[in-house]
């Protein structure tokens, strides 16, 4: 029989159990493991979110972001490649310590990759000139260009820098003049397919000894990268090969009959037999390593040893995240990151061109991001070298560019007109933008003053800025409405509207129109600093002047303005409406679609523009450098080294617009208007759109762990004439003036501006 006493005792036991469980859960110490956004790690990190797991994942945008998480102790440990350690070592230096190396399957306990040089017996360091060169090729994601160029940069004499050649042409020219005519240096030399084809024809001697000379490639069905180079040497008459030492051992184990004819060539000129156990190397890449914050280094080293022996589900997930399995083991190590990968930064230039791209930045943080990108580019042997030049404002950068003290800088597209007309610039590349980031021009009207666009005639209206999308959109509407040719800085708007103010209007136009009559002296002329949120300034202009009728702004700004208590309190539902192009009026809190907007254009586009005097060589160098950086540090990269478009120390839109998609090229377009339409429409690729992937959405599991995936890219525009059609009656030179029969509205974007005349 169950008594009151027995029930009481049962409750006591249950309470004790609950307290023990709570106490156990509370006392589990959690360590944060910094990880990238690869899908395999996402799945493993879900399992590490269980209550009994002692390690939890913390997401990082890239290795640089992870380094700051370690420095600030938001993360306690991470796994890095040697290249990543070399990249972030200046950040984590004495704040962290390497506690383990991750040994490769069947590999040596010291190195992940060793590259050596195999030569015919009669070849020495002094007789390399004229030898037929065999190379594994470029495009292997496991080996960057820096690694693959170390041997040739050591032996090819520097000094070949012809001004008529681009950097890649000078490099290939140097190689053809040093190595024999029947060589094979296959793979991807550039990121430009059209240029690649021309280079293969121009420097065909570097492809002549490949299995497929026309495509400059080896047979993928028979050759991996290293085996193809070794076949080139042993079976196709080559004389020197730069290859992985592990591959050499495996190749001559299978084809031992060739071994007696070849030797290892060492950097000091000595030679070793092919059969030696420890041959000399030209490059040695240390193993991947686990890094921990210094205060917990010993503690985590001991705990990880125990966790690797554990059998719980989270233990298995941790092994997977750390890339440890039955074939990969952890090796104890104690060392500082700065000492771990010293040889990663060797110079691999075979020319002496020393060309640079000077990039003007407008803040210390943007300059810091520029320097970080420069470091990443250097690790991958990208030429020309970036030089970061800091200024106080975009206007100072424009002046520096105008005075030839600078090559490129980033500005909003709303400054494109001013940048072209008054700084004499041309577009070179542009950045496409994401579908969800479109600029939709609308009018916010006071319903007691205006109920249609026609009602705005001879009324005072507000614009964010001169030359911006809202200004250009309404200019185009009036030009169509009046059926007349006009220029943006003419008096078309001044003839339709009453006296008004369009901030940042050009000084010489003050007397020619009504654009400046209501401006203050500080917001009429070109400002010394850009308004942080110009749409809000246009709305403020409207709400603080009872007699004003409308403000033309981006519809996407309305929500942010309404969320500001200072503005929201001024909006009464019955006094303001969004005026659509078809005359409909909508409440301010309703979503504006493209059918309502006067014009819809994509937002967040970086346009690279430069001096009209830039040579084709300079344009090619700049184009290839940005393409290469985009491929390595853009949305499609798997390096996890650095995201050039992503948030930097919590700040967006430094150097590039982070919400854009890619740079689209005019090079594939057959007619100038095609390029203009591409700029106008910002073609969208669904595979590369900006998104946030979270585990609970993708896997149906509940966790706060998620990744921000930022996708952006760059592409070249051949010349400014292809971006907009030349004006017929506005200016003698073409540029950003709005004048063609087609709508030439730009997105609200960032521009990279090159040196002016």
Can you lay out the helices and strands and say which pair or pack?
Layout: H1 4-27, E1 31-35, H2 39-47, E2 55-59, H3 63-71, E3 77-80, H4 82-92, E4 96-103, E5 111-120, E6 133-134, H5 145-148, H6 150-155, H7 167-178, H8 193-202, H9 225-235, E7 240-244, H10 245-254, E8 262-265, E9 271-273, E10 283-286, E11 288-293, H11 297-309, H12 313-321, E12 329-335, H13 337-340, E13 356-361, H14 364-379, E14 385-390, H15 394-402, E15 408-412, H16 416-423, E16 425-433, E17 438-446, E18 461-462, H17 469-482, H18 492-496, H19 521-524, H20 534-543, E19 550-554, H21 558-563, H22 565-568, E20 576-579, E21 585-586, E22 599-602, E23 606-611, H23 616-633, E24 660-664, H24 672-681, E25 691-694, H25 695-699, E26 706-709, E27 715-716, E28 750-753
Parallel strand pairs: 1-2, 1-3, 6-7, 13-14, 13-15, 18-19, 23-28
Antiparallel strand pairs: 3-11, 4-11, 4-12, 5-7, 5-8, 5-10, 8-9, 15-28, 16-23, 16-24, 17-19, 17-20, 17-22, 20-21, 25-26
């Amino acid at each position: 029989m169950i008594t009151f006493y027995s029930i009481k005792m049962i409750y006591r036991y249950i309470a004790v159990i609950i307290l023990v469980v709570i106490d156990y859960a509370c006392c589990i110490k959690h360590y944060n493991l910094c990880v990238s956004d690869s899908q395999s790690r996402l799945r493993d990190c879900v399992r590490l979110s269980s209550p009994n797991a002692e390690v939890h994942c913390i997401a990082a945008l890239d290795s640089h972001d992870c380094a700051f998480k370690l420095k600030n102790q938001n993360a306690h440990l991470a796994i890095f490649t040697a290249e990543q350690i070399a990249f972030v070592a200046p950040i984590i230096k004495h704040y962290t310590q390497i506690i383990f190396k991750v040994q490769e399957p069947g590999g040596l306990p010291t190195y992940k990759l060793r590259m050596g040089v195999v030569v015919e017996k009669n070849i020495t360091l002094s007789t390399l000139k004229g030898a037929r060169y065999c190379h594994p090729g470029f495009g292997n994601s496991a080996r960057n260009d820096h690694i693959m160029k170390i041997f040739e940069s050591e032996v090819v004499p520097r000094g070949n820098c012809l001004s008529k050649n681009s950097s890649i042409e000078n490099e290939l020219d140097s190689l053809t003049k040093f190595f024999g005519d029947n060589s094979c240096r296959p793979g991807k030399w550039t990121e430009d397919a059209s240029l690649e084809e021309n280079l293969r024809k121009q420097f065909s001697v570097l492809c002549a000894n490949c299995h497929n000379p026309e495509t400059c490639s080896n047979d993928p069905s028979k050759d991996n990268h290293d085996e193809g180079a070794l076949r080139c040497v042993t079976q196709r008459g080559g004389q020197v090969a730069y290859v992985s030492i592990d591959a050499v051992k495996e190749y001559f184990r299978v084809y031992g009959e060739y071994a007696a004819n070849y030797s290892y060539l060492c950097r000091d000129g000595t030679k070793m037999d092919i059969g030696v156990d420890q041959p000399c190397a030209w490059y040695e890449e240390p193993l991947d390593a686990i890094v921990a914050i210094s205060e917990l280094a010993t503690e985590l080293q001991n705990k990880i040893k125990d966790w690797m022996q554990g059998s719980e589900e989270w233990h298995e997930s941790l092994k997977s995240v750390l890339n440890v399995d039955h074939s990969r083991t952890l090796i104890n190590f104690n060392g500082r990151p700065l000492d771990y990968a010293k040889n990663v930064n060797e110079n691999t230039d075979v020319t002496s061109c020393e060309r640079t791209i000077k990039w003007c930045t407008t803040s210390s943080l943007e300059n810091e991001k520029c320097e970080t990108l420069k470091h990443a580019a250097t690790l991958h042997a990208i030429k020309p070298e970036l030089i970061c030049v800091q200024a106080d404002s975009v206007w100072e950068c424009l002046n520096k560019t105008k005075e030839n003290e600078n090559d490129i800088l980033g500005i909003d597209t709303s400054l494109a007109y001013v940048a072209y007309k008054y700084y004499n610039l041309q577009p070179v590349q542009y950045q496409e933008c994401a579908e969800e980031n479109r600029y939709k021009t609308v009018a916010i009207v006071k319903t007691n003053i205006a109920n249609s666009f026609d009602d705005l005639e001879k009324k005072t209206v507000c614009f964010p800025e001169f030359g911006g999308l809202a200004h250009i959109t309404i200019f185009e509407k009036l030009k169509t409405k009046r059926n007349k040719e006009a220029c943006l800085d003419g008096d078309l708007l001044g003839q339709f509207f009453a006296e008004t103010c369009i901030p940042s209007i050009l000084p010489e136009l003050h007397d020619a129109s009504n654009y400046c009559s209501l401006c203050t002296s500080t917001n009429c002329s070109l400002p010394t600093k850009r308004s942080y949120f110009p749409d809000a300034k246009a709305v403020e202009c409207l709400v603080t002047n009872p007699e004003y009728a409308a403000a033309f702004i981006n519809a996407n700004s309305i929500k942010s303005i309404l969320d500001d208590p200072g503005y929201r309190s001024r909006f009464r539902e019955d006094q303001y409406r969004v005026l659509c192009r078809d005359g409909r009026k909508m409440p301010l809190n309703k979503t504006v679609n493209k059918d309502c907007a006067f014009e819809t254009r994509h937002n967040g586009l970086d346009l690279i523009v430069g001096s009209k005097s830039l040579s084709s060589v300079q344009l090619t160098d700049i184009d290839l450098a940005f393409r290469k950086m985009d491929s390595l540090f853009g949305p499609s990269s798997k390096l996890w080294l650095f995201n050039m478009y992503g948030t930097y120390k919590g700040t967006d839109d430094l150097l590039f617009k982070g919400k854009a998609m890619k740079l689209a090229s005019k090079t594939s377009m057959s007619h100038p208007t095609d390029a203009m339409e591409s700029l106008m429409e910002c073609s969208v690729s669904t595979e590369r759109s900006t998104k946030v992937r979270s585990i609970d959405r993708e896997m149906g599991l509940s966790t706060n762990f998620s990744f921000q995936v930022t996708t952006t890219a760059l592409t070249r525009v051949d010349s400014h004439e292809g971006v907009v059609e030349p004006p017929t009656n506005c200016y003698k030179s073409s540029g950003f003036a709005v004048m063609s029969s087609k709508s030439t509205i730009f997105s609200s974007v960032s521009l990279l501006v090159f040196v002016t005349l």
